[in-house]
Amino acid sequence: MVKANIVLDAKGLSCPMPIVKTKKKIKELKAGDILEIQATDKGSAADLQAWAKSSGHEYLGTETEGEVLRHFLRKGGEHSSENASSIPEISLEAFTQKVDRDESLHILDVREIEEYEEAHIPGVVHIPLGEVEKRSNELNKNDEIYIICHSGRRSEMAAHTMKKQGFKKVINVIPGMRDWTGQTEKGGR
């Protein structure tokens, strides 16, 4: 059992709120301190792991107690950063126009499988955020890839991961499927 300096209650919140609250709360800690995030969102583990890695903090693990996931992060040193490099963004409106004009766009959906199965843009590649690092070889590093999630947080983290792996043209779609009004499909891969 990990001993935390501060506990953050993010129970009942869904993406992107556990990350938003974590970003705010971690600022209260000193380097090396441990933050416990209590969440019920199943996607929070992958989200927090990716965010910690991209922002210079250390993801220590997760303990499960019933429906509650207890995540532990160690705050990084003075060189940790929220955005090591900026990721280009496209508004959902501009993205929708591109989708309507060009069916050959490369679109990566990084939401969890349950979200993806509920509704996704036809023809997208689905790789949940927690799998992006190990499955990025399924994508072409030279393609222009539009990355989408529910709100734009996970897609931003995926873009940072992919950029570090040598992807040249990754673009974050803001705000994401939360406000998508275009054509969708239901079901699995």
Automatic annotation (TrEMBL):
Q: What PROSITE patterns does UniProt report for this protein, alphabetically? A: RHODANESE_3 (PS50206), UPF0033 (PS01148)
Tell me the superkingdom of the source: Bacteria
Question: Known SUPFAM superfamilies for this protein?
Answer: Rhodanese/Cell cycle control phosphatase, SirA-like
The UniProt record lists the Rhodanese domain at 101-185
Q: Which SMART domains match?
A: RHOD
Q: Which family does it belong to?
A: Belongs to the sulfur carrier protein TusA family.
PANTHER family associated with the record: SULFUR CARRIER PROTEIN YEDF-RELATED (PTHR33279)
Q: What is this protein called?
A: Rhodanese domain-containing protein
Taxonomic lineage from the root? Bacteria, Bacillati, Bacillota, Bacilli, Bacillales
